[in-house]
Amino acid sequence: MLFLALCFASTFIILKSTGVVTVEKIEIWLDLAKSADPIYVALIVSLLLFADLLIAIPTLTVMLLSGYFLGPLNGAIASITGLLVAGICGYGISRRYGYVLVNFLIKDTEEREKAIAMFNNHGAVVILLSRATPILPEISACMAGMSKMPFNNFIVLWLISTVPYSLIASYAGSISSIDNPSPAIYTAIGLTGLFWAAWLLFRRRMKLERIRT
């Protein structure tokens, strides 16, 4: 998971240094699309969130802007669509080819089986809390595929993690404005803080389990 995190983080560093994708550019793209047709805004939102599988995109910012430009319902639908497709693709690709990466990262067969077993035991919680950090959702989708988690289990967990998050973010964006950005700001802080706190509690519980065993 650390190796995958470094791969995803490297894309953020590259994009940040080159200025190819920035929050300001995303807002300009959505604003230009809105002047043409709302369907283009929805398409850009979905594509950006899907691209998060390959490059580091500020997903929460995109979802807030989606609600601002499209409204709470349409913004949420566009966000959920992009994240759902990204999760399914990450899972599918990793399930098909992930064994190559797992064998490369973990040479020892016994250790490899332990790593997969650990994700099988705790992967559900990892997926549910994956919105705690920008990179963790993509990692959890890839790990679910590599560990051969049943697709039905994965998709249910992914939707539970994604749908409420998207609805809240889109609604906050829809009631925000340039003059009053407080709802979006407070929502961003609240969602991030909530998932971070839950993630820290989960990690503490994992440490206690390791100590007991």
Strand content: under 5%
What is the C-alpha radius of gyration, as a whole number of Å? 18 Å
Low-confidence stretches: none
What's the average pLDDT? 77
Explain how this protein is built:
The protein has 213 residues and is an all-alpha fold. It has one domain (2-212). The protein is built from nine helices and no strands. The chain has helices spanning 2-18, 23-36, 38-51, 59-70, 72-105, 109-128, 136-146, 151-174, 182-212. Helix 2 runs parallel beside helix 4, helix 4 (59-70) runs antiparallel to helix 5 and helix 4 crosses helix 8. The longest helix is centred in the middle third of the chain and has 34 residues, at 72-105. The model has no long low-confidence stretch (mean pLDDT 77).
Write the layout of secondary structure elements.
Layout: H1 2-18, H2 23-36, H3 38-51, H4 59-70, H5 72-105, H6 109-128, H7 136-146, H8 151-174, H9 182-212
Descriptive terms for the model:
213 residues; mainly alpha; globular; single chain
Structure at a glance:
This protein has 213 residues and is mainly α.
